[in-house]
Amino acid sequence: MTNDRPPPGRIMPEGVPDRLYGRRRGHPLRARQQRLLEVTLPRLRLPAEAAGDPRAAFPMPLEALWLEVGFGGGEHALAQVAAHPRVGLIASEVFENGLCSLLSRLVPEGEEETAPLPPNLRLWPEDARRLLTLLPEASLDRLFLLFPDPWPKARHAKRRFVHPAMLPVVARVLRSGAEWRIATDDPTYQAWVEEVFAASPLFDLPLPARARPEGWPPTRYEAKALREGRRPLYWSARRR
Q: What is the pTM assigned to this prediction?
């Protein structure tokens, strides 16, 4: 893991959140999880030096390149990888237990060094802000932000990924017409999404869907929200 500062030579715009996540680790890692991070993660990791030409980090030509910011337990990322074998997905997550959850779904115990891995998946186990500064302009065809930490307290609003200062950063790496999928069950964040996008000339934001659209794989966070009586909203913003 590296530090959370943008890389040298790239200056983040004024007002960009200084932090987009909370803790990096939950409960102590078991031996199996530690081995996944030490042995399996490097096999899928997107090196920073490869981010300038991200398609070259995949072993085959790609029809499209997608990025998921904060993949949680990895259910959505792995479903997309399986459903779209000609699409390259960069999945970003700093929470070590989430990284282990995804890796454990891919690799049987005892095969951390040898098990075959999806050729169209690369992992970025760092702050997504850094990756966004390294990717070329108009290099992404789709971005996923599904059930992010809502940072509900007003003093923490600056940590939300959907943020007025972040929209130009995201827009730079999305091609014209690219889709940004956003889902959240938090009423504060739902109102915030509408407010922030309404003030931006960079994206079109249609009305949200109130049921998960076709082609949006489920996540554990959505399931938890529905169990607890919270109703998610699902947006498909478009880069102008």
A: 0.90
What beta strand segments (E) does 114-164 contain?
Answer: 121-124, 140-146
The amino acid that residue 61 corresponds to is P
Task: Provide the pairing of β-strand 174-184 with 87-92.
Answer: unpaired
Mean pLDDT (whole number) for 151-159: 70
Catalytic annotation present for 149: yes
User: Exactly one of 149, 185, 186, 204 is catalytic; which is it?
Assistant: 149
Instruction: Return the closest-CA partner of residue 19 out of 158, 204, 227, 119.
Output: 158
Q: Tens of pLDDT along 60-102?
A: 999 999 999 999 999 999 999 999 999 999 999 999 999 999 9
**Domains in the chain with CATH codes:** 31-239 (3.40.50.150)
> Do the beta carbons of residue 26 and residue 99 sit within 8 Å?
no
Q: What share of the chain is helix, strand, coil (3-state, %, to 5)?
A: 35, 20, 45
Strand partners, 143: 67, 180
In the sheet that holds 233-239, the strands lie side by side as 121-124, 87-92, 64-69, 140-146, 174-184, 233-239, 203-204
Look at residue 27 in the predicted model and tell me its pLDDT: 74
CA atoms within 13 A on the CB side of 149: 17
Token pair belonging to 102: 């995804």
Residue found by looking up tokens 């600056």 in the block = 158
Cβ 93 vs Cβ 16: under 8 Å: no
Q: Give the sign of the dihedral formed by CA 145, CA 193, CA 14, CA 170.
A: positive
